[in-house]
Amino acid sequence: MTMPHTPAVARTLPVLRRVLDNLRKRKSTVALVPTMGALHDGHISLVRLAKRRADKVVVSIFVNPTQFAPHEDYGSYPRTWKADATKLASEGVDLIWNPDARLMYPEGFATRVQVEGPATAGLEDRFRPHFFGGVATVVAKLLAQVRPDVAIFGEKDYQQLKVVTQMARDLDLGARIVGAPIMRERDGLAMSSRNLYLTPDQRKAAPALHRSMKDVVRRLRKGEDFASTLAAGAKLIGDAGFKLDYLEARHAETLAPLTQIGSAPARLLAATTIGTTRLIDNMKI
């Protein structure tokens, strides 16, 4: 009978470095999957992609306070360490990096990564101006701490993926950033740790976001009028009970606004709130 794999757990930098040195003794390649815990099947898909891309897999679990505004859900963000560790053990993860906020941001911490380019595209940054500076700072720290060959990020947070990719390239951080496809529930809702916040009625209504976006993509691919198609999609989303922050078609690499669908790769991106829960999604056009 095969004994279950137990990942190493590091909560201090000396332990992290010691375990990483052991993992690399045979010149193994290392993949990092950064998470904030509350792991679901979407996260597990990132882990499985990481295992295909590298010899050893490190998963970080850290709820990063610098990417939450004061009115957001840092204090109530789901923390499910025991269940997370069990899931990662069953996937054969080699190391869990689980620092606390005092280690990541010790007293006197005074450095922050300032990001532009995709971080100032007028999407998430319009509504969460604090967000990408916090993400970039913590990801830069994680990449410096773990020194992975590759780091896996989900495409659900599409603008974040582009910001991190640009930052890693600009700062020569040494890791190749790889995007992983969105994992969805059977009814189309993009998997997210925040889905746990939805009431039963909200959960029943939530897939309307994906359905509306699919309809917009279908119409744009058929060549229907750009502005009226987006306006009709926004109305569908609003009628389903969502407060819409944005529904926009953007260049898939630069996130520059588009006024028509042509030869450039394009992405439809949306951010909404239902009840008190903010949901984001995107689809290739």
UniProtKB/TrEMBL annotation:
Family of this protein: Belongs to the pantothenate synthetase family.
Stretch forming the signal peptide: none
Lineage top rank: taxon: Bacteria
Residues given in the record as (R)-pantoate binding sites: 67, 160
Pfam families per the UniProt record, alphabetical: Pantoate_ligase
Protein name: Pantothenate synthetase
Active site per the UniProt annotation: 43 (proton donor)
CDD domains, alphabetized: PanC (cd00560)
Protein keywords: ATP-binding, Cytoplasm, Ligase, Nucleotide-binding, Pantothenate biosynthesis
Function: Catalyzes the condensation of pantoate with beta-alanine in an ATP-dependent reaction via a pantoyl-adenylate intermediate.
Source species of the chain: Afipia carboxydohydrogena (Pseudomonas carboxydohydrogena)
Gene that encodes the chain: panC
Gene Ontology molecular functions: ligase activity
Subcellular location field: Cytoplasm
Broad class of the protein's primary localization: cytoplasm
Enzyme kind, highest EC tier: ligase
UniProt-listed InterPro entries: Cyt_trans-like, Pantoate_ligase, Pantoate_ligase_C, Rossmann-like_a/b/a_fold
Enzyme nomenclature, EC number: 6.3.2.1
